[in-house]
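[job 0417] fold request received: Isopentenyl-diphosphate delta-isomerase
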Amino acid sequence: MISDRKLEHLLLCTHSDVEYHKKTGFKDVELVHKALPEVNQEEIDLSTSLLGKELDAPLIITAITGGHPASEIVNQKLARAAGKLNIGLGLGSQRAAVENPELESTYTIARQEAPEALIIGNIGAPQMELSSRAAEMMDLDALAIHLNPLQEAIQPEGDVDSRGYLENIQETVKNTSIPVIAKETGAGISGNDAQLLETAGIKAIDVAGAGGTSWAAVETHRSQDKSMGELYWDWGITTAASTVEVSQSVEIPVISSGGIRNGLEAVKALALGADVVGMALPVLKASYQGEEILQDFFHNFINQMKVAMFLVGASNLEELQNTDLVIQGKTREWLQERGYDTKIYARRSSL
Ligand code: FMN
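[job 0417] inference complete; emitting structure tokens
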């Protein structure tokens, strides 16, 4: 049953409208153009590291799949791309294979195809008791616990008793041999929640904010009664706002994701304070078009990032984090109401 649901998710996400109608907020973020960039665009260095692994670019393919025979080929293609580009790869929830070991190969294929890449395992918060088995299933660099209260609330069979999760996270961190990441699945993480997660021992946070794939939307397509999913389609903290909230609230690495669709948005996310950027839906769609198109997607994306970095005079990611930007519109309103400082970005290069 879980396995069938995995296939349904893949098909729905590639063929139906599953994205937020509201935006990520990155349109409210303007990088300050430099007429004198003093940088050679061809020498821009995008390399970084996350949880001890070097990455050639600050990119992660966030959790998508595994657990259905059809997902093996998807993970194979994603892992080949991640390996060639030396970027990170997140696997989909491993619950299906913990419960049915015959499905393990739909995940382990990723390590076979990308022996050196940063590979992140995945388990849902409602199934945290399966964490150590997920972590031991294969050679993983980290395990992500996904938080998906929106999806649980909308899906008919959802688990809506979330009491004790934070305590369970603390236990899981203690009992897991690899670093544990917390990730949302598209509704964002607030600064307050980020602080609780950091205190519980989480080693990185993926904000997975609102503006991209909406799990209320996915569940709307799956339900007979669409009214609940439609009402909550746009629920969540936008990715731009969540990226600021989380990166101003914790010291651990921050992954910005949720609706990031081009290299300019990625650069804005990094300039706001993220360490790495993640994407799921566009990567899945490109993978269905073939491995060459998938690689072109990333090459193009990286080139787009380099143009933005050139235009703000940032020759590496550290310089990018000191570049000037202005936060306007709804994102500024949100952040100011929530007590976050939006001005610190505006003239920081001259400080
Ligand atoms: N996130 C998880 O943590 N575990 C999953 O098993 C998982 N499955 C997904 C399956 C599909 C088909 C898609 C599109 C996304 C899935 N996600 C899962 C969520 C993504 O990792 C990501 O957080 C979310 O889609 C927002 O990013 P995007 O707008 O770039 O798609």
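[job 0417] notes: The chain has 16 helices and twelve strands. Residues 313 and 319 are 8 Å apart (CA to CA).
[job 0417] exit 0
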